[in-house]
Amino acid sequence: MAAHTQHPAPVSVWQRYRKAFAALIGAATPAGLVGVLALVGVDITPELAAWLIGIGAAIIAPVAVAGAPANLGPHETATDR
């Protein structure tokens, strides 16, 4: 076994749950966008806001998860893959 793999650095929470964080950010992005638009004065009806958030999250979250790198297990390193 090579020296660098005998005691790999611990996997961070961000590396271990990459896909979950991508889903969370992807689902929250449309709501954040609607909030920013409302703050700058764009008149958005509640129905339009609901549609934008629902459809935006349904599209962005799966794309973000598909594009995120694979999760690492508790004893894996990025070089193991």
SS class: mainly alpha
Amount of beta strand: under 5%
Using only C-alpha atoms, the radius of gyration works out to: 19 Å
Series of secondary-structure elements, N-terminal to C-terminal: HHHH
Shape: elongated
- The residue ranges in which pLDDT falls below 50 over 5 or more consecutive positions are none
For the sheet with most strands, the description reads: none
Average pLDDT score: 86
Cα-to-Cα separation, first versus last residue: 16 Å
Helix content: 55-70%
Number of strands: 0
Total helices: the number is 4
Give your account of this protein's structure.
By secondary structure, this protein is mainly alpha-helical. It has four helices and no strands. The longest helix has 22 residues, at 18-39.
In short:
This protein has 81 residues and is mainly alpha-helical. 64% of the residues lie in helices and 0% in strands. It has helices at residues 3-6, 13-16, 18-39, 46-67.
Task: Give a quick set of tags describing it.
0% strand; mainly alpha; elongated; 81 residues
